[in-house]
Design a protein that fits this description.
alpha+beta; Methyltransferase, Cobalt-precorrin-4 Transmethylase, Domain 2; 8 strands; 4-stranded mixed β-sheet; about 25% strand
Length: about 170
């Protein structure tokens, strides 16, 4: 990533983090889930979130190893991602490019719970039920229209529909 580009604003495809949180990785792992479930994106470590100041990382090698370890352990199924460290102005940065994946939903697992996230503007939020259902269907390479019906053809007819409609609305012939 070119740090000379405009870093004033987080958006749907980029999220800034000052450091790699080891003890509370949810702060950034939910973004990994969200990017994989949405349209992909970039997590950039070494940029202070509130003012976008370049602060760099203390130990980029250790941070890279921990990022890989935590993504591999806490995100399921495993999304496609690339790690890249780079230097600017004698500061170390870590970039994670997360691809949008075909095996949605991608869940963040913590304390025995699985939660899927999506990007909504510049935030990673828990996927609402209706979006989670769509992610599940996308992961199964199907749509709502392709789901099998619980009704057989002999269970439904326009005559039955018409009679039910009249009964429910109180219409008479």
């Amino acid at each position: 990533m070119d740090l000379n580009q405009n870093l004033n604003v987080e958006n749907t495809n980029i999220d800034f983090k000052e450091k790699v949180e080891y003890q509370k990785p949810k702060s950034w792992l939910k973004s990994v889930s969200a990017f994989a479930n949405t349209n992909g994106g970039i997590l950039l470590f070494g940029i202070r979130d509130n003012d976008k100041k370049e602060v760099g990382l203390v130990n980029v090698e250790k941070d890279s190893e921990k990022v890989s370890e935590l993504i591999n352990a806490k995100i399921t199924p495993l999304p496609r991602y690339e790690l890249k460290s780079f230097k600017k102005n004698n500061l170390d940065f870590l970039e994670i490019k997360i691809g949008d994946g075909p095996r949605t939903p991608y869940y963040f697992i913590s304390d025995g719970r699985k939660e899927a996230y999506i990007r909504a503007g510049n935030e990673s939020i828990p996927a609402p039920k209706h979006i989670l259902y769509n992610l599940i269907l996308k992961g199964q390479n199907t749509t709502f229209d392709e789901l099998p019906s619980i009704y057989g053809l002999t269970d439904v007819s326009f005559t039955l529909l018409n009679a039910t409609l009249k009964r429910e609305t109180g219409e008479r012939d």
